[in-house]
Amino acid sequence: MSQPTSLPRVGFIGAGRLARCLALGFSHAGYPVTAVASRTPASAGRLAGQIPGCAALDDPQQVVERADVVFLAVPDDSIGTSAHTLRFGPDGAHGKSLVHCSGASPVELLAPARDQGASIGGFHPLYLFGGEATDLERIAGCSVTIEADGALKDTLTALAVALRCHPLSIPPGGRMLYHGAAHYAASFALCSLAECVALWRTLGFAEDDALRALLPMLAGTIQTARDKGLPNALAGPVSRGDTGVVQKQLALFESLGGDHAALYGLLSRRAVALAQRRATPPAAIDSIAEAVEESLGRSLNQAAAGASVK
């Protein structure tokens, strides 16, 4: 594919799952991906070998010299160190940018590059990379959270669109809250499934059978949320106003001990808040909210007492 000269040259420091998907995606969209460096040379070689005109390099500094936009696709603990070792120089930094791909780390970690005249920014895809070729297709429709100013923001927005993703903008200082909250739609969703599986196993369900039953329900819930929004996707006794069922379930989880009741109560509190956002909330929503708070008071006090004993 011919490369329009107006597009910036893109380089990567790091050749892991994220870098592989982004580099191949940018290349397929027509961007010149010119250089890749990695602490594991074989990884850089494998990625560069899939991209026409891309060089696998031993020295990350050579990526800066061959690219206009350099993506730091390295672990969070290495971002600051990498930024300190790269040299842009007051003359060589003209038109160059250094961008990290972390959701949690501040862009300010890249200040050494900015001090040398380069633009800095953040580019975080909200996607769980599997490291497979299917990532290139599955990332389409996802969002990319961008933190940058001026021309770099425009460039990163165009790169997100090139991946067929939706660009989001985040203010400086907001990345830790943004990233922490995102766990509820990723890791914590898995934790909720794990809690259900653990409880069902006490009834004799095998984990494989439990997941076979739960995953289609989760997929349907996500699709309904996409179609109808969060409040109208809510199902279960809170959404129906079944006070008696909620009270019995809360009491059951309290009887199990541990933190089962606290977790169930806290999530039930969130379910109440969603139900209250409906155009016509369940008639019994106030009594359900009261039952949830009473149970939470008992379970959280019990958990605190158990912690103090330990």
UniProtKB/TrEMBL annotation:
Protein known as: Pyrroline-5-carboxylate reductase
Domain DUF2520: 142-270
Highest taxon of source: Bacteria
Alphabetized Pfam families for the sequence: DUF2520, Rossmann-like
PANTHER family noted in UniProt: CONSERVED HYPOTHETICAL ALANINE AND LEUCINE RICH PROTEIN
Putative oxidoreductase/dehydrogenase Rossmann-like domain span: 9-125
Region forming the signal peptide: none
Stored SUPFAM superfamilies: 6-phosphogluconate dehydrogenase C-terminal domain-like, NAD(P)-binding Rossmann-fold domains
InterPro entries per UniProt: 6-PGluconate_DH-like_C_sf (IPR008927), DUF2520 (IPR018931), NAD(P)-bd_dom_sf (IPR036291), OxRdtase/DH_put_Rossmann_dom (IPR019665), TM1727-like_C_sf (IPR037108)
